[in-house]
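Hi U.,

Before I forget, here's the chain from the pilot set. I'm dumping it here mostly so it's searchable later in email.
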Amino acid sequence: MVTHYDEQSELNDAIWIRTKKNIALGQKVSIELDGGIETSYPAQASAKNIDIIKTEQPETSRLTQQEVIIRTLDHFNTIGLPFVKSIHYSEAKNVWTVVMLDGQSDVVEDMEFTIEG
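Structure:
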């Protein structure tokens, strides 16, 4: 499952990707699709190519961005379709802040989670 949140257009996309590549929870990816997209929600498609986008780990943080996302999802384990709206690390406070929303909920409510870095 790949989700994408775009604050400028408030467009929330979710798509199940069929692939033989092993993708870990919380990784950032770029996907080239192979063929069309099945119009369900979430949509479904096959991947022609998937690139893992390396995210930086701040020098003062003991956690990677991926680890923070995993901990956030563990905390909000009732989210049906999680969208990461933003993830930010404050070096001055040594704190990560993640804002998420549930794409399957009728209630449009941000969920904020902070974790020491």
